[in-house]
Amino acid sequence: MIYFEKVSKVYNPDSVALEDVTFGIEPGEFVSIVGHSGAGKTTLLKMILAEERPSAGTVYFGSTDIHDLPRGDLHELRRKIGTIFQDFRLLPHMNVFENVAFSMEVAGRDDEEIESDVPHVLELVDLSHKAWNFPHELSGGEKQRVAIARAIVNQPDLLIADEPTGNLDPVSTYDIVQILKRINDLGTTVMLTTHNKGVIDELGKRVVTLEEGKIVRDDKHGQYVI
Amino acid sequence: MFLTNVRRIARTGLMSFWRNGFVSLASVLVMIITLSVIGAIVFLNVLLETSLSAIKDKVDVNVYFVTNAAEEDILAVKSSLEQLPEVALVTYTSREQALENFRVRHENDQLTLRALDELGQNPLGAVLNIKAKEPSQYEGIAAFLENDSALSPNGASIVDKVNYFQNRAAIDKLSTIISAADKLGFGIMIALIVISVLITLNTVRLAIYISREEIAVMKLVGASNMYVRGPFLIIGMLYGAIAGMLTLILFLPITYWLGSASESFFIGINIFNYYLSNFGQIFLLIMLSGILIGAISSFLATKKYVNKV
User: Fold this and answer.
1) Residue B287: CA count within 13 A, CB half-sphere
2) Do A89 and B223 count as a contact with CB atoms less than 8 A apart?
3) Phi and psi at residue B121, to the nearest 5°
4) Chain A: nearest CA to B202, how far in angstroms?
5) Which candidate, A48, A56, A32, A12, places its Cα nearest to that of A181?
6) Are β-strands B87-93 and B127-132 bridged in parallel, bridged antiparallel, or unpaired?
7) H runs (alpha helix) in chain B
8) Which of A76, A83, A105 lies at the smallest CB-CB distance from B220?
9) Residue B149: what pLDDT?
């Protein structure tokens, strides 16, 4: 479903973010990308969201060349991809329900759908009881769960999680990983980047290891080895 | 879905307008100044144009004859003038009548009257007053007077002077002044429009900066560019519409206050009455200018900054 073909990204001759990366992700897969800071993990994810262009090579989403899409159509691509980040990126003046509903509004869904879908998703991330709280009233783990709810409410084909547990304590981290697994079990492809050895070992899924912009390891049931 | 989107975009725009209250106020005030200038130029134009045509209307040509011109010669000129298609009316004032008029005009001026009596004879010539159907036709009539043989039956001209040429200089001067005022007003208007576009542009940029988190999230969850830019376009147009309304309201007391002054200073036009009777057109002009200036500013601001966020 995602296919990187000989992708390189060179910011300048001294700093090469990605070098000749080729790998694919099947629908329904759960892939973790690991590597040191600066190994190129985030660049890889940004290419899928068309925030970065490769210097060479092609990135496919399904059969579409992502970087061939006209600017005006990019939002269509992004609606098929849910994204969560280390820093949550919730809107502070909206409560939990509104934060999730906002994503549906933007996608042009009508009010009835929003009324019925948002509670479902909040239930999935176990936040139904906090629907009317504002982000500053939530713990880090809860905020990340809101972010996940927002990312999946439009039923994306792919969920990208860029170090989602980077700011969280072990218990919350465990919760988040469980939720990601559950979402994957429901059929959504998940791409996760992380520094957390515990998370990788707990998952027991495919692991792609990046080092200085190159893929050095790709294990079906990987361990965190750097 | 389209209607839902429009409603959501409008709501976000209104909210943002309200939340950035002070910034909005500044933009609205600047736009009021620009729109007032546009309106003032309209009024000024009307005043000048009406005055010019009123003055043109008062223009006539007087042919002064020499004192010893024979009455039948003068009447012959009169009848040949009346044959001209351009001429609306020719009035003959005999020497005696001219003297009578002069005495009436100077009845409080004993010095002049006594000097006239001292003279013993009538120093005034007969006068033909000619009115043309159109102000532009005086040129032709004047040319006719210069060439017509009836004016010099015995070889010597019986015409003392034709006053058209003095009037024409004044009319030309007035036209020049009016067109210069037009150009100056246009220049000021353009400058102010540019300034208010720049200020509104900055205001919208500020609004974008304040909402940058929201915009980042919007793009993240797949908002189309129009969905992101829409609210800011609404804000810009709202600035213009509010400024337009306030300007139109502001014009009421201002034109009322200037109304009687304009009536006496310029010829026969009261700008308050003019404002009221042409309200529809002025309303459209001011509102559309405001909304357009606002929309252009927002369009430029979002073009550059929404894509960057």
Assistant:
1) 9
2) no
3) -125, 165
4) 24
5) A32
6) antiparallel
7) 2-19, 21-58, 71-83, 95-105, 110-119, 138-147, 164-210, 212-220, 225-265, 271-277, 279-305
8) A83
9) 58
Instruction: Of B268, B236, B276, give the one whose Cα is nearest residue B14.
Output: B236
Pairwise pLDDT comparison (A217 vs B60), residue with the higher score: A217
Residue B222, phi-psi category: left (phi > 0), alpha (psi -120 to 50), beta (remainder): left
Q: Which two tokens stand for residue A191?
A: 């791409």
Confidence grade of residue B309 (pLDDT, cut at 50, 70, 90): very low
**A201 vs chain B: nearest CA distance in angstroms?**
30
Quick: pLDDT tens for B146-173. Answer: 776 556 666 667 777 777 766 677 767 7
A5-38 pLDDT tens trace: 999 999 888 888 888 999 999 999 999 999 888 8
| Residue found by looking up tokens 């009035």 in the block | B91
Kindly state whether A70 is in contact with chain B, defined as any CB-CB distance less than 8 angstroms. no
Mark which residues 192-221 of B lie under 8 Å from A by CB.
213-214, 216-221
Structure tokens at A105: 């509004």
Q: Name the range with the highest mean pLDDT among A183-187, B86-90, B134-138, B225-229.
A: A183-187
Residues 6+ positions from A18 with CB-CB distance below 8 Å: A7, A8, A9, A40, A43, A44, A54, A213, A214
Residues 227-256 of B with CB under 8 A from A: 227
Contacts of B218 in chain A (CB under 8 A): 106
- Location of structure tokens 């070098």: A19
Which amino acid appears at position B20 of this protein? N
ipTM greater than 0.95: no
Q: Does B11 touch chain A (CB under 8 A)?
A: no
**Residue A81: closest CA among A95, A96, A97, A69:** A69
**Is the Cβ pair B221, A103 closer than 8 Å?**
yes
For residue A159, pLDDT beyond 90: yes
Structural domains of chain B ordered from first start: 2-55+171-305 (no CATH), 67-157 (3.30.70)
Residue B281 has pLDDT above 60, yes or no: yes
Where is A102: in which H helix or E strand? helix A96-106
Question: To 10 degrees, what angle do helices A140-152 and A96-106 make?
Answer: 20
Note the Cα A31 to chain centre separation in Å. Answer: 10
Q: What's CA B8's distance to the chain center, in Å?
A: 44
